[in-house]
Design a protein that fits this description.
- This protein has 21 helices and no strands.
- By secondary structure, the protein is mostly helical.
- The protein has one domain: Up-down Bundle (Amino acid/polyamine transporter I), CATH 1.20.1740.10.
- The longest helix has about 30 residues.
- The termini are far apart.
Length: about 500
């Protein structure tokens, strides 16, 4: 028969899961926040979140494979359209906050690519301080991308695959270079291991309290985010009932090992107190600081001159900057419209004002995209000109991103028992067949997510850093409230029409 589609095999699925989930930048943030101690939390997040939730999303995806609304369809078919709308709106907010945080962070790899180091801390414009200048550049970036993407000019997104390849090469460079440094230094680590304590206690004084340590769990969950997008490939798999669980289990082991070994490898070249324990390093430039140090340490291990080591450091930084900048650019031209368009077209049109559901000649929801751009720009403006320094600025952006990305999983995991109760669905793929065990796993996953989110919100309050606390928790609350308002006005509009 002509045109028979080739099915995805086990190896292809594992590679697909790995490329969707694994991110080298997650390991640099982990090493900066918790040092070697972050390895435990990454393993725990894999066992109590990534593996069980990935199998749940596979069941959702197989049962609702004909639906076009993504997670909105999953939630609507499980807990009803209204809660689905609120849950998916909060999911959309995680992408909006990603746009907001990355619009400011994108200038760091740009600087690293051009100058061989992060120079953004010295950038000023018309009397604005560096943080305000970066915020202004972020606003201009959002306007620039929205303008071109709303006209259907998404060819730049294809360049993003090149960035993804370069980022993957960064991981290869980290592995090879680290082992060369370890061999040349006679097995000596830059960040020494002092027994089990090195894998329990963080060298970062900000993560010395139990609440701060527990709040790190959200960082670990964030590192495994994205598995919900894999539910849509079930019907394309060869023998999905066997291939998907095997693929998820093997991918979980590979990704967890890759995260754990990568975090440990940073300790070969970077002593935490010497390289990261200073005011010039923040969560925005941490990847480029560590890559620069990796290049310098390589030259030092071969007893090269200081100037040659500096050239190597600059080269490693430029390579990291190039890869990350291209990857960011490609992602922006997709994510500026894709989640928004998917949600608007996949959900009930009656929930939206008519203008927001209209597509332009390029097939883009241009009006909605510009509203999204306005929201992102206002949020950047408020955080940027809120008086925070660069360090606090990037902590706020990172924490906002982590919380808003993690929060929608409360809806997806919480809706799963209701999804399992439905008897009218065809379930070509089913893992959770025991009701008691299913509910127990759901409770465990929900408990760790709630505790992680709760401690992340509580930590800045305990530190009396109320600005960070406000911005950390405001995303899901604000967008959940906006979704509720949409529903209220939708009901009023329908009542009026009737």
């Amino acid at each position: 028969m002509a045109g028979k589609q080739k099915k995805i095999g086990l190896i292809s699925l594992i590679l697909m899961v790995f490329s969707t989930i694994y991110g080298l930048a997650n390991t640099t943030v982990a090493y900066d926040q918790m040092g070697y101690a972050s390895i435990f939390w990454y393993i725990l997040a894999a066992l109590v979140f990534f593996l069980p939730s990935g199998l749940m999303f596979a069941e959702y995806g197989s049962a609702f494979k004909e639906a076009k609304g993504g997670i909105y369809s999953w939630l609507a078919g499980s807990i009803g359209e209204k809660w689905a709308f609120i849950g998916t709106f909060i999911w959309l907010s995680s992408w909006i906050i990603w746009l907001m945080s990355t619009a400011s962070k994108v200038w760091i790899p740009f600087s690293a690519m051009l100058f061989g180091k992060d120079m953004t801390a010295t950038w000023t414009f018309l009397g604005l301080n560096p943080t305000e200048t970066i915020g202004l550049l972020g606003i201009l970036w959002i306007i620039f991308v929205t303008f071109f993407a709303s006209r259907g000019i998404d060819s730049i997104a294809r360049v993003g695959s090149l960035g993804g390849t370069l980022v993957l090469l960064m991981t290869v460079v980290l592995f090879i270079t680290s082992f060369v440094i370890l061999f040349k230094n006679g097995g000596q680590l830059a960040q020494p291991v002092h027994g089990i304590q090195s894998f329990v206690n963080s060298p970062n004084p900000q993560f010395s309290s139990n609440i701060a340590i527990l709040s790190f769990f959200v960082y670990a969950v964030f590192a495994y985010a994205g598995s919900e997008s894999l539910g849509g490939v079930i019907d394309q798999l060869h023998k999905p009932e066997k291939t998907f669980p095997r693929g998820i289990i093997i991918a979980t082991i590979i990704i967890t090992f890759s995260y754990s070994i990568s975090i440990f490898l940073w300790g070969i070249s970077a002593n935490w107190h010497q390289v990261l324990g200073n005011s010039s390093t923040n969560l925005g430039n941490i990847t480029y600081v560590l890559m620069s140090n990796l290049g310098y340490s390589l030259g030092k291990s071969f007893s090269l001159s200081a100037s040659t080591c500096a050239v190597l450091a600059s080269g490693f930084t430029r390579f990291a900057g190039l890869g990350m900048f291209i990857a960011y650019m490609g992602s922006f031209f997709v994510l500026i419209y894709s989640p928004l368009k998917s949600f608007i077209l996949g959900s009930e049109k009656r929930f939206w004002p008519k203008k927001m559901t209209e597509l332009n000649k390029a097939g883009m929801p241009a009006f909605s995209m510009w509203i999204q751009a306005a929201v992102v720009c206002v949020m950047i403006l408020l955080i940027t000109f809120g008086g925070s320094g660069a360090n606090a600025f990037y902590v706020i952006l990172t924490d906002m991103g982590n919380i808003s990305t993690t929060f929608p999983y409360l809806f997806l995991i919480g809706a799963f028992p209701f999804f399992k109760k439905r008897t009218d669905l065809q379930r070509p793929f089913e893992i959770y067949t025991n009701k008691f065990l299913t509910n127990l796993i759901v409770v465990i996953v929900l408990a760790v997510l709630v505790l992680g989110i709760g401690f992340s919100a509580l930590q800045p309050i305990m530190d009396k850093d109320y600005v960070t606390a406000f911005w950390t928790i405001i995303g899901p609350i604000f967008f959940g409230f906006v979704a509720w308002l949409f529903l209220v006005f939708s009901n009023k509009r329908r009542t009026k029409q009737n």
